[in-house]
From TrEMBL:
Record keyword Repeat present: no
Source species, domain of life: Eukaryota
PANTHER family in alphabetical order: BIOGENESIS OF LYSOSOME-RELATED ORGANELLES COMPLEX 1 SUBUNIT 5
InterPro entries to which the protein is assigned, alphabetical: Bloc1s5
Species of origin: Clavelina lepadiformis
Pfam families with a match to the protein in the record: Muted (PF14942)
Signal sequence region: none
Record protein name field: Biogenesis of lysosome-related organelles complex 1 subunit 5
Amino acid sequence: MEVISRLFNHRPAIQGEIFYFVRQFEDKKNKDDELINDIWVNSRNLSEKILPLSLDLAADNFTQIQAKVLVCCQMCEKISSQEISPINMENKSESEEGFRHNIAEQKHIINKEYDEAVMKLLSEYEEMEKQVERENSTAFEQI
């Protein structure tokens, strides 16, 4: 029993354990200090450089947007204030009808050209297939 009590009361072993225990907390404290310092540097950079620049850019852009919206509102008011007379409506409907007619003609021409191109390609592919068949048949005859 005396040997066991001497083992547990051995001061150098206990002091070593205590030293190891304290050193773990000091290491963790140093890491925490470094992390806090990094956060402080980043937050200082953000508050001194990035935020003022962002606010200046936002102020410039907001004034530009405000000016554009104001111009847009004025244009809308000008358009809505103009009276649309029956004569303007007739001219407008005639020009729209002419536009639709032109579009229909162009569509017809484009469709015709497309169909011709498709037919040309189909005939070329048929000729190519016939040529491949001829070459295959001559190749088989030579073998």
